[in-house]
Design goal:
Number of helices: 8
Strand order of the largest sheet: 3-2-5
Order of helices and strands: HEEEEEEEHHHHEHHH
Largest sheet: 3 strands, antiparallel
Strand content: 15-25%
Radius of gyration: 63 Å
Helix content: 55-70%
Length: 310
């Protein structure tokens, strides 16, 4: 009885161990490859899976994105300069069956493949192109590696060149070249600044002279317009005054004696001038004769008034 109980307990424990051995858990980022007696049976998705103990086994494959650090290596450029280059490869398993059965060790194989293609890609470029064309090198390597690893069930997502180190003497020469180039640019910028300053000063002087000339011309024009207006106004006033005098004289029926007096007043103004010689008109003799007649009139007038005084 006791022996039967012990045997039953052993059998139950054995069944429990077998059951536990047959229960497998596949995580969300994994795929399970189930082999039955050494032959591929099926692919298990994430979750709780059951296999037959001792007859089946499960291989879990991580489907997340991974990276491979490609160690530094010396590469010769097209212009025979030795540079040290290292890179990082990012990849993701796309087919769990292929990555497990088509390639024995993917990461070492991908590392060797990346090193070989680095030599090929950089060997086609000169040093200056190598230092300034990282994006092109990354894209070219990614395309080459992705095409080569497609049969292994792996997709290369990107490749990044970490650093490209030329020899020390090349680095020193490049540093001196960059320093000389900066000095050259600084001298060019300084000369351009001086040139622009002189041009601006010349333009300023030119504009100043033009504005001054325009101001002088405007002032002269305004002065001339003012003088013209003054002369026109004076001429119009004199013309109006002469016309008024002329109309007054003719409307008043002047006698020859009045005309003679006005003529003498005009001669007096002429005589007051600065000229040393005076040219009298031809009619002066007639005026003088009129003066004689006027003198006789003034002599006769007192004789008529004498009787009134007595």
């Amino acid at each position: 009885m006791i022996l039967g109980i012990v045997i039953g307990a052993i059998i139950a424990l054995f069944l429990i161990i077998i059951a536990i051995t047959g229960i497998k858990i596949v995580r969300p980022f994994q795929r399970g490859l189930v082999e039955r007696l050494g032959k591929f049976s099926r692919e298990a998705q994430s979750g709780l899976q059951f296999i037959v103990p001792f007859f089946e086994r499960m291989i879990r494959v991580d489907m997340r994105e991974h990276f491979i650090n490609v160690p530094p290596q010396e590469v010769i450029t097209r212009d025979n300069v030795v540079v040290s280059v290292d890179a990082i490869i990012y990849y993701q398993v796309s087919d769990a069956f292929k990555v497990n059965y088509n390639i024995k060790a993917f990461e070492p194989a991908a590392t060797m493949l990346a090193q070989t293609n680095l030599r090929n890609v950089i060997g086609e470029l000169e040093l200056d192109q190598t230092l300034t064309s990282r994006e092109m090198i990354n894209a070219k390597l990614r395309d080459t590696l992705d095409e080569a690893t497609d049969k292994w069930g792996v997709r290369v997502t990107r490749v990044e060149i970490k650093k490209i180190e030329p020899p020390k003497d090349i680095t020193d020469a490049m540093s001196q070249q960059m320093k000389a180039e900066r000095t050259k640019r600084a001298a060019i910028l300084e000369s351009e600044g001086i040139k622009q300053s002189q041009i601006l000063q010349a333009e300023g002087q030119k504009q100043s002279q033009i504005l001054k000339a325009e101001g002088d011309a405007t002032a002269i024009q305004r002065i001339a317009d003012a003088q013209k207006y003054k002369f026109q106004t004076e001429a119009e006033g004199q013309a109006a005054a002469i016309k008024l005098v002329f109309d007054s004289i003719h409307s008043g029926n002047p006698t020859p004696d009045l005309i003679t007096i006005k003529y003498l007043e005009a001669l007096q103004q002429v005589a007051n001038g600065q000229a040393t010689k005076i040219f009298l008109p031809f009619e002066t003799s007639g005026v003088l004769s009129s003066l004689g007649a006027m003198a006789e009139i003034f002599k006769k007038e007192p004789s008529k008034e004498e009787p009134k005084k007595s």
